[in-house]
Fold these 3 entries.
Entry 1:
Amino acid sequence: MSTRYAILMAGLAAVVAVLFVASLLIGPAAIGLGDSLAALFRGEGEMVTLVMREVRLPRAILGVLVGAALGLSGAAMQGLLRNPLAEPGLIGTSASAALGAVISIQTGLSVAFVWALPAAALLGALISVGLILLLAGSRGTTLTIILAGIGISALAGALTSLVLNLSPNPFAASEIMFWMMGSLADRSMVHVGIAAPLIVLGGLITLSRARALDALTLGEDAAASMGVNIRALRLWLIVGTAALVGAATAVAGAIGFVGLVVPHLLRRAVGARPARLLPASALGGGAVVLAADIAVRLIAPDRDLKLGVLTAIVGAPFFLHLILRTRRDAA
Amino acid sequence: MLGCVHRSKHLIAGLALAVGFAAPVGAEPPRRVVSINLCTDHMALLLADPEQIVSLSNLASDTHSSVMAEEAAAYPMNHGLAEEVFLQKPDLVLAGQYTARATTSLLQRLDIPVAVFAPAYSLDDVRANLRAMGEALGQGPRAEAMIARFDADLAALRADPTPMETRPRAALYYANGYSSGKDTLAGQILEASGFRNATAEAGLTSGGFLPLEVLILENPDLIVRGARYPGASRSEEILAHPALRQLGGEVSREILADRDWICGTPHVLTVIAALRAARHELEAGK
Amino acid sequence: MSALLTLNDLTVRRGECPVVDRVSFAVQPGEIIGLLGPNGAGKTTLMRGALGLLAHEGHSSLTDLAPGPRARQAAFLPQEREIAWPMPAEDVVALGRMAHGGNRAGDQAAIERAIERMGLEVLRHRPATQLSGGEQARVLIARALAQESPVLIADEPTAGLDPAAQIAVMEVFARHAQEGGAVVASLHDLGLAARHCTRLIMLERGRVVADGTPQEVLTDANLARVFRIRAHIEWRADGPIFQALSVISP
């Protein structure tokens, strides 16, 4: 089991590495393989270096970071709520983070103070996770989680649209799509700088709770009697996932279903243990978002096809399948 | 993508060529003209007698969108709603091709003559639009005089001894990575000001999305950025991308605001002059 | 011998009303204590209060301990047999070692002992969620055993099990007690309690109404008052035989 897990993790890491390099090599400007790498590592060719280091590299780094954040937060939320349908996109966390981000941009806070953007997104995510736990209870049934999620998503989405529609900027209203569907187009090292520290911090917080999540498999009373501080666990996981989803959404918009599909696909392979699912889902999420971001560039190189469109097309059928299975299990 | 569509309406919409309306020969000129489109507002302001105009669209007096906001402020404004326009009892409504179809068709069913103008995609369209507007307003001679002056001024601006090969290359770059190739009003304005169009050389002939990395590899001498609107948007963030800043000190500049490009009126001459001045500055610096 | 668990005037309130009312008793090594009482008597609340899972007044010796040492002193088997994820049975059992952390070899030995004691060898690699209710109960008991805490607190551990499995569970408890531990288990099956417990504590509306050997507690008067039943009990040399007969109308 342990060696199997090590092999799985190494395999996932290799897939992420390959996709990362592929992401660097794919773009609308045709640059040869050798030129790309020479520019990236040795700075040969002034303009090509600029493209590689300032346009493609941040996009690839953000692909890994955002994907890891989404996969990890999905696995953590599922562990906390003990429900495979919990996912930041579905339960309104991403939408609420987007609302926070939009408010900080439209009030000008994010210009005045660079950390305002991720901080506001984090706050939005924090409020929504808190609301979900309040509405769905500590062990969310599928029905209450999904219903609470629909309510929170609808409210956050409507408020996001409202804020953007009221903006004096003529482009703002057309950006509802970006905030709902997400994209990594034209991101820069500035965005990496904004998102990376929070994602790393949220990741460390979440991963440090892995063993407690294992114990929670047997319910809160059993876990508490095994020495887990349930209240602290819940608090840390709320903060951790809010940091992950907030930072990811602040720079890339709301990308749905990654946190649902990735843990679902990997759960069997890690023996269903939440502690092992967390790091595996982080790698898996990175791979999925990198792959999706490569795909949108290959499918429609001349337009900014949104990442969330692709992840939803793949992820929504999974979601429906999971609902069907949950119903069958309940019967 | 939505942003791009939005852009294209906004930017290329120089407004041209009356479609679906012909003033009856020998008819009385209209006395109560209502314009419900920014560009028809401008042309009406340029060509109509002040007492012909009943109202202009609300955008006409918005300083962010309109280069004639001051002139327009003297007139009542409308919001382009059929009911509101109908109650003003117009004998001619001026509309753009992208004005809400429901509004124009409703007005037509109420037997109100509507002149619909298509956007100007070229400098020729500017002339054609002025001519059509002159006819619609019964101000033909005034329109012809304006066209003659426009042609003379344009010829003067174009006159330049610098051979094409040695002229600097420029690219127009707006929010959402939108750019304009040769077959656009903006592209023709750029060309008339004596620049080579780097966007066109990158293979984009009409208006559309130009990936940032393609723009960088084209390495133009000047990137004419759209001025930023008030408030904030993610669409405009690309204009402040670190890669653009690293292209070098003065390469990327805000020379003009979007309102300068929106409509194809003789105002484009001012734009050409400004770009020409920027080119001379560049050439002097070399 | 010192007590493994002591409760002094333990009171748990829901709102104003005490659900557990000034309960005091001490648990000695070797004891198998059956908590008896009709539904709503406060058995589950008493166990959760004693473990510090609920806010309470009075004193429980367990809540003096920090969470880690507390888990090494007492293991808890909740009534809900919840296993959220399809983990292999042996991984579920291994969760019992949470509070020990560190000693890999020691952990593995404890896990193997628990698996062997609950007869889970053939099930150990199966996903626990795919096992039958009785098998899941055995896996969860094995988890509590792997915790190797002297006190084992079990909330209706025999509910829903077939007769053989019920007896097997009580025998596992007996062995745990023989080895110097103690068991506190709530039971609805009075016959099982009479035969397998060394001591019974009967609760009524949160209060202890009887505490002693099965013979002292399972009297006609107590059964009539607390359970409102008449029963036939035969105290034989090879253990008591209990049969409930009829409900006493109020």
Entry 2:
Amino acid sequence: MRPDRLRLLAALALASFLILPLLPLAIWSFAHGWRFPDLLPQVWSLKAWSYALGPRSGVLQSLGVTTGIALATTILAALVGIPAGRALGQYRFRGKGLVTLLLLAPAFLPGIAVVFGLHGIFLRLGLVGTVPGVILAHLIPVLPYMVLVMAAVFSRLDPDFEAQARCLGATAWQTFRNVTLPAILPGLMTAALFAFLVSWSQYLLTLAIGGGRVQTLPLLLFGFSSAGRNDITGAIALLYILPGLLVILLTARQITGRGAALAIGLRP
Amino acid sequence: MTALVLDQLRKSYAVAGQAALHGLSLAVESGSLTALLGPSGSGKTTTMKLIAGLIAPDSGDIRLGDRSIRDLPPERRGVAMVFQNPLLFPHLTVAGNVGFGLRMRGLASDRIAASVAEMLERVRLTDLAQRKPAQLSGGQAQRAALARALILRPEVLLLDEPLSSLDPGLRDEMRQLIRALQRETGITTIVVTHDQTEAVALADRIALLLDGRLAQYDSPQAFYGRPATMAVARFFGGVNFIPGTARAGIFDGALGTLTLPPGLPEGPGVLTIRPEALRFGEGPNPRAAQIVALSFLGSLTRVDLDLMGVPLQALVTPDTARTLGPGTEVQVSLPPEALWLLPPDA
């Protein structure tokens, strides 16, 4: 009985820690005004939701932009991260430590420190205010996750498997497609998940490089929040956390299982 | 007919720890089973990787039939290789692994299934076709790896130490399977091994690599009876070496004059006799010998002898060993047909 009750308590504590902060947002999104001494709103309403999901708020369009940017960033990060991860995980070369450090740097450095310099460069390249510019900027914080996870994955992959495939008549591409990819897929999924969520939650870089013309969800959310529209903010906030929650639920097994173990370089 | 020709292959590595090749030439006969034998660091694995196309030679050529395969990528060489470790792809079943190469060639799936079924039958893995590699024993995995390469009917099949990862009990079974499949299919096969007895038991011909060069390419019997150099003789367990000079069918050295078999070269050289060829009792080339020590080795007994101050070794059966005692004087014979002349050591 006792371990069961302990487990229940732990689950409750965890749930309240994760879910309770979201509760006021949820309530706000269905409230028609919610004044101080009231425990719950007096009048309920779907007004905030119908506005948020309506054409005038720009939420749906922004949802599309945010998803598109996050997907593109993830795919580009994977295209760079797979070969880079292989180089770091399997090859020995001069300056490897320095390369690793440089790759890691964006994860340590505060974004605000680099964003102004970046803005100047992107302005000259005509990338400010464009979606490609925002995607490129998002790659800065996303790449370290991708490359480090893939480096851990590749360091555990025996390169002889690929040599074996070549010696059985598989071309380089067939080998990647049929041998390497299945082997790295769990780790790649984990890395892609992180990459997607890191891009999804970017605020500062999108604001600076997007120049207000690329309206992702966090920007929109911040706008409504500053305007004091708690009901609409609540609705958008719930929409905003939905994909992350969905992805995590769908890949929970991946994250808690072999993929995650690979990602942090532990034996599964 | 020669199938595979290695012509003056050279390969050196910038990083130490990889064995270099110093101009290796070898012509492997079509349809033969050749053992590429050598101690560790002799360049066997380097040679294997060069043939497979996993590394490129610094100079020299590799030809298959009349075409050079030197600059072809591994998948276009007509060469299949089985690594020492079975390396079955973990996400595929046994059947999926065996059919891998045919799938890469783009064959129709019903033809692949038929070939896979037949191949699995041959290596006795039919019942395990749907298993994942993790569920196989070492011997089963090795057989699946062999089937996966053989199904491609390659022009040359390379096997890297196919028995070394197996338990001793399974080795003989695997050796017989390799032998039988090779005879059945007639595929030119090269087996890399560091184990001299394995090479002898398995191969039609042995290519002995010493120090990045071909020391001798011959039948297994020749390595015992007619080794090319002292290094070759030593690798095959030769221990008795007597320097001297051969002239007109007579060898003159530390053991006095000995009658040689016909056909041996003249001039200075080193006389050798296999320890198991030394006879006890009366016979040609008789000598009196002192028994220094007897060492029980299991099925045979090693006898250390002193012949006129020259230390020699003999290997005898238990029956003979019972008649011998340490410190006693015996009569031995060095039969001329067991004598062989080596060039003087450089």
Entry 3:
Amino acid sequence: MSDKRKVVVGVTGLNNHDNPGPGIPTIRGIRESDRFDVRIVGLAYENLEPGIYMRDLVDKAYLIPYPSSGSDAFINRIMEIHQKEGFDVIIPNLDAELYIFITHKEFLRQQGISVFVPELDVFEERHKANLYEFGQKYGFLVPKTKAITDVKDLAFLPEGFSYPIWIKGKYYEAYPAYDYHQAVHYFNKIAAKWGLPIIIQEYVKGTEVNAVALGDGKGNMVACVPMRKQYITDKGKAWAGIAIKDDNLVKLAEDFFRKTRWAGGIELEVIKTKDEKYYIIEINPRLPAWVYLAVGAGQNIPEALLRLALGEEVEPMRDFKVGTMFIRYSYDLIGHISDFEKINIYGEL
Amino acid sequence: MKDLAISKNGFVFNPSTGESFRTNEVGRLILEMLQEGKSDEEILERILEEYDVSKEEAERDLLEFLNMLKFYNLM
């Protein structure tokens, strides 16, 4: 008989398309664990999210309403699914849903569902629009950042800004603008898609390096793998990347967890300048879509996250294999209209 | 420079940036000697010993290669 612990894990972010969510790579990591006998329950927003149809990775999938439909509708649907599935843990993987999970963490815990997420104050502090103030408070270098709500604000840039600047969406998308006209174009493009505010950020010259890391919520870093993108799509997503040895970046991540006591995964996006300064340009509050690189390099971060959510102590992982690469690819899943019908009509598959 | 992984076939990997390069036999010799802490003069001497090349040409090529390494932040 297997002595693996049986757990039911809900996972969001099954949108494994050209702008992929972290759900599927997170599931791959958990599935590779020899500690758990997992039932994966996929939680999807759209009926064509590929993860719904990946039957070898996702045991059962349900549609859930977008967080924008309100926290009551969202949580009610989660509880409805919980009645059937009996979640032990839910791993949220999308920025936009995190607020609800954080504010309902205690409620969910009372229902028997663990969600390993950071405290609300630090979650809000590291938000793109507040990142500069975050850097000043905790002692990190951050390019000047300001949230604006009116395209007219681009005509006279705030003090300390000059072109080029980054134009960024509240949650997603970023473009470098080299003059006023480009800035207006990107402002309108992003605002139409993601709403306001738009964040403008000082353009710091250097090399972008990223890290996926995990904190235990007590100030300790449990895992960290730095990565350099080798191939970037037109959406700015890494399509290939390599694990690099960057002790300064690991130390930066360690500092972040020590100072903020962050619980859960993060993706640190950093610009390393020629004189070896590290500017944080974004702190994504969840595991990135490339988290499986860390698994391949020797740190099973999704498994460690699951263990932390279950209240286990996890020994910090320090080693990983530098030079491990990921190369993303697309793949045509074959499904049938009857599956599409089920997810459409019944909201589950 | 010390961290560079240099394969026998001339494939060079910089683990701190993730960048990789390809070099020829002489380039590999130069990189290996730099890793051992050898001076430019010692490297030049070795090249002259091993290859049929004039001192002027070897000096010029070595300087060019070293400048390229600096350009790519490899030294």
